[in-house]
Amino acid sequence: MRHTRHTPRRALADPGWMARCASTMALFALLLIVPSLLEPPHATYSARPVVPFDTAEGKLLALRPLGDLMERDIDDLARSLEYRLGVDVTLLPPLPIPPEARDPATGHVVADRLLNWMFATRPDDAWRYVAVTSDPLQTGDAHSLYGYANAVDHVAVLTTFHFEAGLHSTDRLERALARDKLARAAVHEMAHTLGLDHCEHDLCLMQRVIPLDRLDTRTSLCHDCIQRLDRALATPNDPWREQLDLGDSFFHRRYYTRALHHYDLAKALLTPHDDPRALSQVENRIGASLLSMQIVAEGEQNIRRAIDLDPAAPQPHYNLAIVYAYAGERALAQEELERGMALDQDPVSRHGFAGRFLLDILDDPDAAAAHLRAYAAAGGDSPYLLEALDTLSRPGAVLFTHGEVEVIHATW
Ligand SMILES: [Zn+2]
Ligand SMILES: [Zn+2]
Prior knowledge:
Helix content: 40-55%
CATH architecture of the largest domain: 3-Layer(aba) Sandwich
Strand content: 5-15%
Bound molecules: zinc ion
Shape: elongated
CATH superfamily of the largest domain: Collagenase (Catalytic Domain)
Distance between the termini: 6 Å
Low-confidence stretches: 1-17, 20-25, 32-53, 397-412
Number of helices: 15
Largest sheet: 6 strands, mixed
């Protein structure tokens, strides 16, 4: 039995996956666990603040208090981050916790929802954006969080919840210790927004799990993480790249108008003397945003410019294949797909795009299945594509997409 699916509208209406550069969401949660479950420490590292840098220019960390917090604690945190990271910290006016950050059923603050809200409302001049709340934070599988960061979007959130007793203590030393814990959690999350991953070293501040009673001078950045953080902080700002990344983050969230705004800013920061590959990347993204907004003819021009600027880049060819498919030019679409694939060194990107394009736009499930198998074998991990492969692999199965009309032709 064969089947076809009625999908072309979906491909037009939902092209959030159009070929740009592969970029995955990187979310990091810092967990705390019950102290009694821990192994004894094997090594210690000296508590050493990261030295300030001359390269701090343009690196403005915007700190946003959310909900019920004490001003003196936030002031102290801002000063502490300036000292530890050597960047400027600006305190934004406090706001209530946004209702959309809460789980409607439990009322708890869900960390990744809050990050989404933060990203959409981030100040334009913020280099990094960190919110602080006194509410407990949770994610799908974790409830005891100090903080949560999105490395790609450069936003993070912290909670004072676990330090509240100390912060409210009448004992000055207790208060100082609690503020130090909060600052350490903040450095951990900031390090994520600077590209640092979790660290396996015992007692390093970048461990995934740190018990509350050891989040003090015994838990500092290890030597390797200090070097990583130093390098990240010392890297001069690259304004066009920052705009490109911001555009990508908006594109992933399907805010195409805002994505386009940042891609246009990136383009304005480049001159014709810059690397044509950089110009090509920007043109391709502008083209993908316009296509996603159904402005096809103009988008096609940008995509063709991207190809002229960097004929070796696969992504503009993939997007041109989409343009041809929209115009009903199936053979040309197939040709551009093959051109892009021949240039694409990354099997996950190559087979992932081909599988999705053949499935969603050219409506060729048999050809799609072969690419999706190659995609899975190469380590591709998109839940959407793996689920599609699973469904296609079942004999006689019909792919459903939520909210879609099914048109099934059975032929033997
Ligand atoms: Zn972490
Ligand atoms: Zn480390």
